[in-house]
Task: structure prediction
Amino acid sequence: MQVTAKELRLSQPLAAMDAEGKGVAFAFCNQLLGVWRPGAAGVTRLGPANQWTCPPPRGLERTYSLAFAGDRVAWIAEAGGNQVTNLLFLTVLGQPSVITIAATTAYCCRSLDPDRERMGDVVGEGRFIAFASRVKCGDNGAPGCPTSTRTLISQTVWQLRRPPFQAQCVNMPGPCLQLATANDPLRALSVDGDRVVLRRANGALEVRKPSGALVRQFPGLAGLSRGAELMGNNRLVVLVPGKVREYRIPNGALVQTRPVPNVASGGVCGMPPCPTIKLQLLDAKRGLVAYILNGKLHLLRLRDGLNKVVANATDARFGDNGLYYAYTAAAPWVSRIRFVRWTSLPVVP
Result:
């Protein structure tokens, strides 16, 4: 790694990132995790010091979903060979070298299911982290499959609590509370404050509290929603074909609609396989929406529709003080995360 005042440079591809407060959590070299705060002389490394080499000395893992919430970082990785294992890790920044395995799943065999992952969609902010798990026929402890196709039996969204809390979690006790479950796809998309937005199989959205209590449903978005982000002040930003919509959560009212290109689109993919899209909704904060279109990071201001390109980018998230965006560069620092303060953005809140 190399650290400058406004940029983190990595010698290996970035696997995932998420911003919170005045910092950003990142994963690279498949399974190395850290937290970087602009202006700091270095990064906070997560996990045992003797594991922080590239490649790490333990078995290969591939991180694909990550959440930074308050003083906690949670992420999900895939491991294993013929047997596919998913692991949900949790670290509290007060003890960054200590990693808790909060949940785990495993099934055989990799070649039998193109949708390999059984956990994902880790999202969080402040004191609230949510994630999703799913069960298919033929999985360990699940009914067998009547055909060679592994079909979905159930999908559940959980709140990830702080250890030593214990309750029934994914296949075993863990620091979890069940928020909602369904017998078809159910995805956690975004957390803001004490709210999480979930997407049903038909595209309808619902906003829930950490207890699972329903706050608001948006059934009219069935067949339309491609992604969604909670934005604070009881607002929900929704990506539909060719448009970004802003809703008030308390009454479900549509506030305004802004145009975007009508191309294949979606939100953050936290449970592979990920669809092929041209426009990806990434985050929303302080009236700004960040999305990537054909490799370029755009900022859209909702109040007047002003839309400008920031830079070439692969990912982006808003923090408290501004925007973090990732991009690729020439060796030796092939992945970089740059921080831009609100006042220096081409579109200010």
Remarks:
- The chain is about 0% helix and 55% strand.
